[in-house]
Amino acid sequence: MPKLKFFDVKAKESFETDKFTKFERKVKGGTIVFAQTKSPLTGIKATRIIGRKK
């Protein structure tokens, strides 16, 4: 998997990783794809939007 940039809100810093899981959420007008990983800075879950599926 390619490296993605995530933001740790607790540490207020961003980090890059290629170890993440993808999941989808259905919303009005389509489906949004997210990536989620554990922050190496504080250990909390960091989530970002990858894109929209139509």
UniProtKB/TrEMBL annotation:
Name of protein: Uncharacterized protein
Write down the species: marine sediment metagenome
From the broadest rank down, the organism's phylogenetic lineage runs: unclassified sequences, metagenomes, ecological metagenomes
